[in-house]
Amino acid sequence: MSTWLIILSVIYISLLVLLSLRSRRKTKTAQDFIFAGSNIGMVLGFLTFAATLFSTFTLMGMPDFFRLNGAGAWIFLAVSDGAMVFLIIWFGFHLREKISQKGFNGISGLLNVCYGNRLAGYVYFFGAFVFLIPYVAIQIRGVAIFLNATFPGILPVWIWASVIIIILLIYSELGGLKAIMYADSMQGIILLTVVWIIALNCIRFFGGIPEMFRQVEQVNRELLSVPGPTGLFNFQFLLASLLAILLLPVTQPQLTTRLVVMKNLRAMHRMAVGVGVFANLIIFPTLILGFYGAVRYPDKNTADFISQVLLFDQPGILAAAAIIGLLAAALSTSDSQIFALGTELRSLMKGEERIVFIRTRIAMVIFGVAALIFSILSSDELVLLARVSFAGTSLMAPMVFAAIFLKYPPGKAIPIATFAGLIVFVLSQLEWIPGIILNIRMDLFLLILLFFLSAIFAYVKRSSVRNNTAS
Which pTM does this prediction carry? Predict the structure, then answer.
């Protein structure tokens, strides 16, 4: 495996360098660097969107999630991602229409323009930073732990994590968003190919899919039903997860920006369909990996199970490809999110464009360091930590919807309510306050409350605008 890993690593890193240099040659202005020329076609669009959406937890977290919690994870993941396709088409149309009127430098900047004050933009940036940095960190940590377990004693976890951060910062700083999109596309293809080849090997072990389900039923019948062996997949969890994933293109800037930079509405619609197809193609094989683990390794911890199924049960070249696939998955999400945070900060800054651009690039390095520090401190629950990130950012959806759909400035009440909701959710995750209120999960309760309050504030603001106009 070591020989194959060296060969594939050289090829992979060489391709990253070539794509970065190619993008750098095409990047003439700061706008090109930040928004990739806003002329992205369907194929590149859906590959970069999908690669950004499906990260390290695809190959490390999701198989273990299926192994421990059963087929209910399919509802949590595949159904939610499929529903997201329809939201991309609907929301993307209205977002692009709004941008044609207001212009675009980032979601935070757009919110400032739509709300007529800077509070909304700062609240959005706060929410993105608080929940995206930990999400980046768990990608880095997941791969670093895996590499440390695969090559024990060579490097500590924090050095593996540092190497990953350095790689993504180099090609991001070289070629900007276009380099990230090219890299993401390559990485998405690698991830999809690797996970299917390993899944087919697992099916071969069972002797077919029907036999796989029969053996899983013998091990633990509850793996084939909801709420599953651990009772995780109850109605509230599935509903809250559906809403959190559904709202990702609205509230996570790395995804929202990709809707904006598509060259036209038709390309965006086709991109959305491509994302839905990719989602189902990549989630189903992780179910197979999870059920393989449920039968063969039901009592192993996460790291041992993943190492076994991805490395030790595979031929050397495939094990090496799995390591590259994990690295690609981590980079394809982390680079986009760190870059998106830089873009959002840039949209809040004023001053000479050259100075703002330099500060933006410095900020990206700082965000990378922050993610590195958090990766050293975070836990190993990749899927559940990812879901917390999704749930946290989803709380900003009512504020974003108000900006996009209202024809008048919504005022400060909605951003203030959103900020309060974010703080309450963070406190509940720290267990400083209860995570259940009125027998409802805190994330679900806050999301419903914020939509309700935003509707009330919007109605009051509209009445005020009409009265002022009439007078």
Answer: 0.86
